[in-house]
Amino acid sequence: MNKHLEELIELSKLDKSIDDFTPLIENAQKKLARRVAKRDDIARRIDEIKAVIDDANSKIASSENQIKSLNEQLALGIVKEKAVKTEKEMKALQMESELAKEKLTFANEEIERYNKVLETKERELKEASLDLNKANEELEKVSSEVSKKMTSIEEDKGKLFAKRESKIRDIDQKILSFYEKIRIWARNSAVVPVKKQACYGCYMKLNDSAYAEVIKSEDICTCHHCGRILYIEPQTEEVEA
């Protein structure tokens, strides 16, 4: 087999091994991202619950101030009744008193309603806080696992990159440039075997002349259909022989 072709086959396999780390890295990052998203969702839920609690407390405080003001108004009305001289004034005071009592009833009902809201939301807050603690623990655990995995991957990639750098120094630069141009679009299928007289990159059948050239392996041959670099695997050569 042509020396340059052998070098490109080895280089292609190295590149594939390096690129095979990409899905491993992506899966690790996705796993971590899912835990982060889960933690953030719980944190947002806690913020929403706290906002409802703050609003309920504010409404309760407002109702309590209103009750205080209405009670003062009723007390003042009692004092005024003692000084009333006409029936018209008495009716006016009675109407004010009835209106104040209605407002008191509504304010007390509002306090009761918001207290129920508080009770529910505080229970939800407690549950969400427990969920957040659990999510943080899970995130910390997964983060540690991913960190170790990424370190291991980077170490393995580093070794392969070092091996690749060593190999490309021995390859003819024109041959290397030719390979890199094909790899831009073909990625890890820049160099592919021929099986059953077909290119295993585009799966198109080679004509007899092109197939014979690949079998000879005297020069670097490319697929007439797709342009990928072709070679015959050793076991295929034995079968052909």
Number of helices: 6
Radius of gyration: 40 Å
Overall pLDDT confidence: 91
Major pleated sheet: 4 strands, mixed
The CATH C-level name of the largest domain is Mainly Alpha
Topology, element by element:
Layout: H1 3-19, H2 21-82, H3 87-170, H4 173-186, E1 191-195, E2 198-199, H5 208-216, E3 221-222, E4 229-231, H6 234-240
Parallel strand pairs: 1-4
Antiparallel strand pairs: 1-2, 3-4
Write a structural description:
With 241 residues, the chain is mainly alpha-helical. It has 2 domains: 17-170, Helix Hairpins; 173-240, no CATH class. It has helices spanning 3-19, 21-82, 87-170, 173-186, 208-216, 234-240; strands at residues 191-195, 198-199, 221-222, 229-231. Strands 2-1-4-3 form a 4-stranded mixed beta sheet. The protein is rod-shaped.
Q: Main traits of this protein?
A:
about 240 residues, four-stranded mixed β-sheet, mainly alpha, 2 domains, disordered C terminus, 4 strands, Helix Hairpins, about 80% helix
Summarize it.
This protein is mostly helical and 241 residues long. The chain contains 6 helices and 4 strands; from the N terminus they run ααααββαββα.
